[in-house]
Specification:
PDH/Transketolase, 5 domains, alpha/beta, Rossmann fold, magnesium ion binding, oxidoreductase
Length: 890
């Protein structure tokens, strides 16, 4: 619907206009400028007016996109705090050695990436020389999320600094007995250098945001002063298409994380071609970040472009830059000047005239090399603006040429991500361009040499002096010598040891009750970090709200609707709970930051992250690997676990496979406890293994259930079996000496079906069954694999599961609320006849009883399966199986 003059309705039409005549005068003035000076002049005046209004403090919506120019004009750049010539020589050596390392590695078939660092060299070097704080100064230093494909450049700089040798560089992408260099940033493989694994694209930016947020969390809870720590995340423009890359931008702005800077290397190329072939990725990113509330600094053009912009009195150059798509601009960098004159400057008469004022050399300089990300002064100005900006995070959009300085065979080529080496002639051309004193005689047997100015050279002394002034080497990971955490008082665990009597309690509630008690511990209570993605009430955690508080940097600026209730929704600046809203990815990023705080900040924290089981390993499995790569510690808890315990939720909530996925991760210790006391034993052992005197770089994954059941008291002497993964919970009593017998192994909630089946087998069929609690199929398998490895070394070792079941009569039947593959992990180490039942297939909406009957894991199905195994052995008649199926309605 439109008004009488054909204008679309606006939100302004809803507001009263107290002076329509004045409004009309403003509109008429704009029309007059448009008519007299053209629409571009009118648009310029409007932009200037909005800029003036913002400076005057008027509350107006901000523009989401600015012109395709630098945010900081050359005249406004701060003085450069360093020796530019010296830093240029350092950068040249780093460029050379990065390319040499990858090229030499290609002879061994290991390859590597060259073009990314070539485009980003100044983005890193400027930071290392002027901004990135090391860990040997005050505080924790800065946290650097290095773009994964740029790792050769970081190794090259560590070589120049004396932290790596030529042999190390030649071991790039090789293990070499612990003397190699991993392909990408990897703390588990090179723990003294890398803090953050970043090559799984998208996880770096997400983690950087939550790391900056966790820094504030530590400060607001008075655990660690992190005011001198800044988080820098180096990203590619193509990487920003990953959903995780932009998932938490609003959080960073909402919480005013001015301790965070994204540096996006906009070389306009992703792995196979342009990031935005028909569009402009820089402008798109600017709109996304401005819209989310970030401070945006565009560093697009080098000094050579200043002359062009000064000559552009009609705005024709700006218009052309706004309309040229990225793929075309990439093409300009690979074509001759005549092509650029025709296709860029030939677009309109004003540009033709502008082009006539420019020499071929000037055009070549601008379109081939002059980018903001390649000039130290431009980068320095952007970084300084970022760290001085208060109240919001900053993103720097730095335009570069992918493959810069590697020669025409690399620069801006679509295939340069996959190009792993330079020829000798290309290296010699690069040598001349960079001005490096490497003689032809250094190229022996067709091998490109490494270059180094000498350990006592001015370049190395300058580099080391700069790093010393900033607090030591970077990047660097440091695990500070700290005392192990004291074990909590025993009474917190005893509450679960004694059981619940006649009262029913779900194991989810048992875990929450235990952690609530542990959070009261005088020594370690404050170090617990409860993390939940907006389901705290589902898991019975609302009792923690008023006591521990929900973390918010603003505190609570409103009166909660449930303030008059005992368990009201309490937010606090020093709140302990991280209640993230509906974002499992955000909650996992929280967990990783807390789980690695022992290294990042020298402050050991004990995170536990509780979530709907289905939305853990399935949804955020890549982050679970990131956690393992980063050597994180803590408790991950899949609540409402299993495929049949969450009644009515159906397919999307029914988790029968997480333990199978978790079993693939070597750092994850996976448990499926059946009873509350098992949880207590597992958590206690986890605290010892992760935070005790001989701390291990592992984390615990527990699945707990929302099905209320009576919780028995802990039997004597079962602790070892609980931790190792198996113990006999209830031995069957034979009705007669020669009664058929079998072993029922069950995990989690399935123990209750097995116990019922034990009774039915005895009462209806005269069969004796022993019921075992299999607390961890994964730990049983891990131990068995270690035993197999020992045999290869000539050591005699029997797997624990084999020992535990040794001599147990009859076949073994394993049952769980998981796919059969989960218990089947251990079948080859069980000497008895093996069979299993599980919940293979999709979930469904129904009652628990109906779901269990559907999957064939309920007590009566267990009875039939048991009789079938015994019938195979001739220990019961085959007719008993058919009779049982009919009796139980199967």
């Amino acid at each position: 619907m439109t008004d009488p003059v054909g204008k679309l309705p606006s939100e302004l039409d809803q507001l009263p206009d107290r002076d329509p005549e004045e409004t009309a005068e403003w509109a008429a003035s704009l029309d007059a400028v448009t008519k007299a000076a053209g629409p571009h002049r009118a648009a310029y005046l409007m932009r200037r007016s909005l800029q003036h209004a913002e400076g005057a403090g008027l509350a107006l919506p901000k523009l989401l996109e600015t012109d395709y120019v630098n945010s900081i004009p050359t005249a406004a750049e701060p003085a450069f705090d360093g020796d530019l010539e010296m830093e240029s020589r350092i950068t040249a050596w780093n460029r050379w050695n990065a390319a040499a390392m990858v090229t030499r590695g290609a002879k061994h078939g290991v390859g590597g990436h060259i073009a990314t660092f070539a485009s980003a060299a100044w983005l890193y070097e400027t930071g290392f020389n002027h901004f990135f704080r090391g860990k040997e100064g005050d505080g924790s230093g800065d946290q650097l999320y290095i773009q994964g494909h740029a790792s050769p450049g970081i190794y090259a700089r560590a070589f120049l600094d004396g932290r790596l040798t030529e042999q190390h560089l030649d071991n790039f992408r090789q293990e070499a007995g612990g003397e190699g260099l991993p392909s990408y940033p990897h703390p588990r493989r090179l723990p003294w250098l890398w803090e953050f694994p970043t090559v799984s694209m998208g996880l770096g930016p997400l983690s950087a945001i939550y790391q900056a947020r966790f820094n504030r969390y530590l400060a607001n809870r008075s655990i660690k002063d992190t005011s001198n720590s800044h988080v820098w995340a180096f990203l590619g423009d193509g990487e920003m298409d990953e959903p995780e890359s932009t998932a938490a931008l609003a959080l960073a702005a909402r919480e005013q994380l001015d301790n965070l800077t994204f540096v996006i290397n906009c070389n306009l190329q992703r792995l196979d071609g342009p990031v935005r072939a028909n569009f402009r990725v820089v402008q798109e990113l600017e709109g996304a970040f401005r819209g989310a509330g970030w401070n945006v600094v565009k560093t697009l053009w080098g000094n050579a472009w200043d002359e062009l912009f000064q000559l552009d009195t009609q705005g024709a150059l700006l218009r052309r830059l706004r309309e040229v798509p990225d793929a075309q601009f990439q093409t300009y960098a690979t074509r001759d000047v005549a092509y650029i004159r025709e296709h860029f400057f030939g677009a309109e008469p004003a540009l033709v005239e502008l082009g006539k004022l420019l020499s071929d050399a000037k055009i070549a300089e601008c379109f081939y090399t002059s980018r903001g990300g390649h000039e130290a002064r431009k980068v320095y100005a952007a970084y300084k603006a970022a760290i001085e900006h208060k109240g919001a995070p900053t993103v720097i959009l730095a335009q570069t040429v992918k493959g810069y300085t590697l020669g025409k065979g690399f620069e801006s080529k679509n295939a340069n991500h996959q190009m792993k080496k330079l020829s000798i002639d290309e290296f010699k051309g690069m040598r001349e361009l960079l001005g490096l004193p490497i003689p032809d005689s250094a190229f022996q047997d067709g091998q490109v040499p490494y270059g180094h100015p000498g350990a006592d050279s001015p370049e190395v002394r300058y580099l080391q002096e700069r790093r010393a002034a900033l607090g030591g080497p970077a990047p660097a990971r440091r695990v500070h010598a700290s005392a192990p955490l004291p074990q909590p008082e025993e009474r917190a665990f005893k509450a679960l040891y004694k059981g619940s009597g006649k009262q029913e309690m779900a194991t989810t509630m048992a875990f929450v009750r235990l952690v609530k008690d542990l959070m009261r511990d005088k020594e370690t209570g404050k170090r617990w970090v409860p993390i939940v993605p907006d389901e705290a009430r589902t898991f019975g955690m609302e009792s923690l709200f008023p006591s521990a508080g929900i973390y918010s940097p603003l505190g609570q600026t409103y009166e909660p609707v449930d303030r008059d209730q005992l368990m009201y929704y309490k937010e606090a600046k020093d709140g302990q709970i991280l209640n993230e809203g509906i974002t499992e990815a955000g909650a996992m990023a929280d967990f990783i930051a807390a789980a690695t705080s022992y290294a990042t900040h020298g402050e050991t924290m004990i995170p536990f992250y509780i979530f709907y089981s289905m939305f853990g390993w399935q949804r955020t499995g890549d982050q679970m690997w990131q956690l393992a790569d980063q050597l994180g510690k803590g408790f991950i808890v899949g609540a409402t676990a299993g495929r049949t315990t969450l009644t009515g939720e159906g397919l999307q909530h029914a988790d029968g496979h997480s333990h199978l996925i978790a079993a693939t991760n070597p750092a994850s210790l996976n448990y499926d406890p059946a009873f509350a006391y098992e949880i207590a034993v597992i958590v206690k052992d986890g605290l010892r293994r992760m935070y005790g005197p001989d701390a291990e770089d592992v984390f615990y994954y527990l699945t707990v259930y929302n099905e209320p059941k009576p919780q028995p008291a802990m039997p004597e002497g079962v602790e070892e079996g609980i931790v190792k993964g198996l113990y006999r919970f209830k031995e069957g009593t034979p009705a007669k000496a020669d009664a058929p017998r079998l072993q029922l192994l069950a995990s989690g909630t399935a123990i209750h079906w097995a116990l019922e089946a034990q009774e039915l087998l005895a009462a209806d069929w005269g069969v004796t069954a022993d019921v075992w609690s299999a607390t961890s199929w994964g730990e049983l398998r891990r131990d068995a694999l270690e035993s197999d490895e020992a045999l290869l070394r000539g050591e005699q070792r029997v797997p624990y599961v084999t020992q535990a079941l040794a001599g147990a009569p009859g076949p073994v039947l394993a049952v769980s609320d998981w796919m059969r593959q989960v218990p089947d992990q251990i079948s080859q180490w069980v000497e008895q006849d093996w069979s299993s039942l599980g919940t293979d297939g999709f979930g469904l909406s129904d009652t628990r009883e109906a779901a269990r009957r559907h999957f064939g894991v309920d007590a009566r199905s267990i009875v039939v399966a048991s009789l079938a195994q015994l019938a195979k052995r001739g220990e019961v008649p085959a007719s008993a199986v058919k009779e049982a199926r009919e009796r139980y309605g199967l």
